Batch of 2 targets.
Target 1
Amino acid sequence: QQTETNTRENKIEYRSPIICILGHVDTGKTSLLDKIRNTNVQGGEARGITQQIGASFIPIEAIKEQTKSFAEKVKMDFKLPGLLLIDTPGHESFNNLRSRGSGLCDVAVLVVDIMHGLEAQTIESINLLRMRNTPFIVALNKVDRIYEWKTCVNTNFVDAYKQQSKPAIQEFDSKVKETIAALAGQELNSELWWRNKDYKKVVSLVPTSAQTGEGIADLMLVVIQVMQKLMLEKVIYQEKLQCTLLEVKVIEGLGCTIDVILVNGRLKEGDKIVVSGFNGPIETNIRSIITPPPLTESRVKSQFIQHQEIKAAMGVKIVASGLEKAVPGTSLYVVDEDDDINAIKAEAIKEVESVLNDIETSGIGVSIQASTIGSLEAFSSFLKKIKIPVANVAVGPVAKKHVMSAAIMLEKDPKYAILLAFDVKIEDSAKQAANDMKVKILSEETIYLFEKKLKDHFDEIRQKLREETANKCVWPCILQVTHVFHRANAIIVGVKVKEGTLHIGTPIAVPNPSVEGGVANIGVVQTIKLNEKDVLIAKKDDAVSVAIDDTNMKTTFGRHFDENVPWYSRISRDSINSLKEGWGDELTQQDAQLLKFLKTVFKIQ
Ligand code: GDP
């Protein structure tokens, strides 16, 4: 049986897993990528590393060589042909590496600056990784910045750690502890990689320095380990085509091209292909498939290698006509002779539409736009999380028509007359239209920056509304008079706030059927004193003295009202509306109940 398994395993062909690097700005993502490539291309010898389009291929031989000093200790058995490292770190390429909602990045490296811990985009990355169910490891980068760190160039981390002084070890340990605690705050269990016994449930932390090279070999090894322990099935090579479009680029001499990652299957020169376009599916033929020249050769601009056929996994550029409107983040389909091209086109349309349809929209909400289908998905899921309703969704540059759609909210609910442009161009005509129609366009290149901008936008609108409605708002309260100091020409009384809050400016009244209109108006609160000090608001159970301006009130203390009944804030239909408009989200359940009660007191429908 042993032999049988062996033979079966021998037959299995694996493709290179696709690895993305994510993390906050300046944590060292680009430097790590460079270091991984450079430590493998030392002395001008490429060790089989190939520069592809949008990705670098690191062959397993190079990784074996790099990790040989300690791979044996962890009993590593290398099964994969190598790693396909996506060259552009960050969210965009990760988001575009998708296929029908699921992620095509097999393992991600989340880079954290060990001196800074978790930052805004680290959390955003964690959310993206969760959304796509992508396993990841954390590179705790910049360990060389630890106080008194002794540099051990390109050494594996465990050996480098042994060389360190006590203070360096202490600082390192405490930084690791902080990161583990912060990750726990994100509901993630984590552990230094050599202590991690459960790759499935616990995220591995790999300390690295992209500058001096400590831990780079560990990083490679742990990526392979995670792949082999958790995901081996996923990287069994398949002939069925799986190819995703990362970018659309105009290249001098070639025209409009698309950069794709071929995850499974093959592409050939001359293949008839279908890709999703902003205005419907695009049908074209592959004119050429190209990659950059090998790393060891001198780079001459526009010198590419052409391939008649390529096999996954690989990043390549495709030259074909009619690709200008292709949508990044969607799939590329090859049409074989006996395929029904219309069915494939329908599939391509469905791919874009299903993303648009999957985004929950409501009749009232903001308008959103992103450059690619992948980033749109990520953006909408972020907005859902922070509870911002979305009414209109689009992919691609912001045009006038998109501003018009957003402008519909001016009538429905003006605070939502905004268009959130996530990493997309805004056409001049759209800017002009937004200006004319008073639609705000918020534009950002990273998702998390929208959170603050949106908060500022809604705060500003609310503030304006509060100012506009300030003199119409009446906060509900019930007062019990405890002492009467002055009965007229300002009424001065000691009161206890039985329910609600008492604000300066609040009209006070009691119901009285014998008065015209059924309500005896007492006056308007002019000052509130708590323990001899002027205050603007008295809370429930506060005992305060209150001066009430009773000029022009057609009532008399003792005749139309007295201290023996509860006094109420005089609410009206108008005042309730103003309060809800300006303060709706800050009204408590008690406020709402009290308003309901006062409505019955003053017989408001
Ligand atoms: P990215 O924005 O995440 O791609 O970060 P970069 O790779 O551009 O690095 C940001 C800055 O940190 C640069 O000045 C790098 O030289 C520096 N840096 C990156 N990695 C390390 C490291 O491991 N140690 C030290 N000391 N500096 C680093």
Note: Residues 52 and 291 are 5 Å apart (CA to CA).
Target 2
Amino acid sequence: RAYNFNAGPSALPLEVLEKAQQELVNFQESGMSIMEMSHRSATFEKVHNEAIFRLRKLFAIPNDYEILFLQGGASLQFTMIPMNFLKNGKTASYIMTGVWSEKAYKEAKLFGEPVQIASTKENQYRNIPTFDEIDVDTDDAYVHVTSNNTIYGTQWTEFPNTGEVPLIADMSSDIMSKPVDISKFDMIYAGAQKNLGPSGVTVVIARKDFLAKANSEIPTILKYSTHAESNSLYNTPPTFGIYMLGEVLKWIEEKGGLTAIAQQNEEKAKLIYDVIDNSNGFYTGHASKESRSLMNITFRVADEELEQQFLSEAKEAGFIGLNGHRSVGGCRASAYNSVPLETCKALSDFMIAFKTKHQ
Ligand code: PLP
């Protein structure tokens, strides 16, 4: 297997891929693939409902929250959220921690007058704002945060208390990488393709009474209520993606659940951050230490030329996806749930050897 550090879509557990391979042509003796089956069949419905059940159990999602499987990626949520909730001149607050927050804010401007209440842009998005920089307007329809900033490699560890104002989080790049107190949020959304499965499924977790406040004068398919009322089977869902998501959730369960996954994610990230921190400036992390992400580790190599050499030697050695995002350059190792500890160990060994050779 490749040492896959892709930022998304990213590595999937080998065990899950092998199981899917076994079941691909003849799913549970049905004589057909899960992809060839009606989404209204009892067999698919069981797969679908089990995925929802596992998500609720593993992520400790209370019963007063809906779990929806949508399409259109996290990017469609940037649009659906303001379309559903910015009605009657309501405002919303956006906390700006990177390019994905900017994209979410830009969509909200099409529907109302969102406000940026805190931004770390001036610091090249190296850090997460402190709570005293966040001043929530109590009239807001919601506050929006990006829990993990895939491009800059920063992550919230604690979330601000927004009082009566609903808190919405884009958790695309750290959902289910650790236990989270769901009750702090009115809505959580994430594209599945980093921690939960293949691309094509978007998970939305939302408090039922928050969804009840949504605008009803919008197209049917863009209303959360449409999907909530039909158990996410309003139209043909991404059946294969939902099946894979269910299998990834089983794998998380077998690994010991989110506490065990979180512990392993910490160990994995530490292997790489330790090399950066002990390199006497040969490697420098992009993110401020207190805001570092355990999912996306962003760093630079001593100079431009060496950095190119690092990326090309890494590629030759079998490491995939280490180039930083095209908007910021540098290097980025994405160590999501499915990236094995050995893969991170291999990268940390490679970084040490590269430094010894070139410093
Ligand atoms: N939000 C974050 C934090 C992301 O990292 C990404 C994709 O990388 C997106 C949103 C966009 O997700 P999608 O491609 O599913 O629309």
Note: The chain has two domains: 15-254, 256-358.
